[in-house]
Amino acid sequence: MTEEKNSKFNELVKPFLVLVGICLVVSVLLGYTNRVTAPVIEANELAQAEATRKAVLEGATGFTEVKLDEAKLKELGIASAYKENSGLGYVITSSNKGYGGFVTVTVGIGPDGKVLKVSADVSTETSGIGSKAGDDDYTSKYVGLTGSADSVDTISGATYSSTAVKKGVSAALAAFDTVKGA
Predict the structure, then answer these.
(1) Taking the CA of residue 38 as centre, how many other CA atoms within 13 Å lie in the half-sphere pointing to its CB?
(2) In a 3-state reduction of DSSP, which class is residue 102?
(3) Predicted local confidence at residue 125, as pLDDT
(4) 10, 105, 147, 158: least CB-packed within 10 angstroms?
């Protein structure tokens, strides 16, 4: 009978305990890795966002975030809004659903309300098709627009991706008056 209990323990309980032990060790290591890398990842994301803002508003020296009511931001579809410190303009970012995921659109707008430059992160979209919506050939069509982006056509074959960019530019233009007044 003791051999039978030992056999059951070795067959059922021992493997379970070993797996639980492995899971605990791996969980602790993953938690530690996250704790160590989280500040580095956050710093990289902030640096990338600052670089994108400077890219769409050439000559910018620094930015101050425009604080808007969260409900107002959500209503307008805006992720963030910044005013350039020397008065060159504003940078407004939105995120819209594309084909493969969300497309983040960052729009540089001059103090007169004209689009200066558009940057679209289409990394979640289909390479070679949807990614065309992030190319300068397409985003440059928005330069000089005021009020709405309705006059720009979507890209055939990349309708979802280019519509996400178009919605992002339209949202930024719609939010401009609110951001400018804040």
Answers:
(1) 6
(2) strand
(3) 82
(4) 10
The secondary structure of 30-84 as a DSSP string is HHHHHHHHHHHHHHHHHHHHHHHHHHHSTT---EEEPP--HHHHHHHTEEEEEEE
Angle, alpha carbons 83-87-79 (nearest 5°)? 15
How many angstroms from the chain centroid is the CA of residue 142?
Answer: 20
pTM score above 0.70: yes
Which helix or strand (DSSP H or E) is residue 24 part of? Answer: helix 14-56
Is the pLDDT at 180 greater than 70? The verdict is: yes
Task: State the pLDDT at residue 182.
Answer: 62
The kind and range of the H/E element at 17 are helix 14-56
Strands 90-97 and 102-109: antiparallel
> Rounded distance, CA 46 to CA 35, Å?
18
pLDDT given for residue 126 in this prediction:
82
Q: How many CA atoms lie within 13 A of 114 on its CB side?
A: 7
Within 8 A by CB and 6+ apart from 98, the residues are 122, 124, 125, 130, 133, 160, 161, 163, 164
**Tokens linked to 86:** 């020397």
Q: What is the pLDDT of residue 124?
A: 82
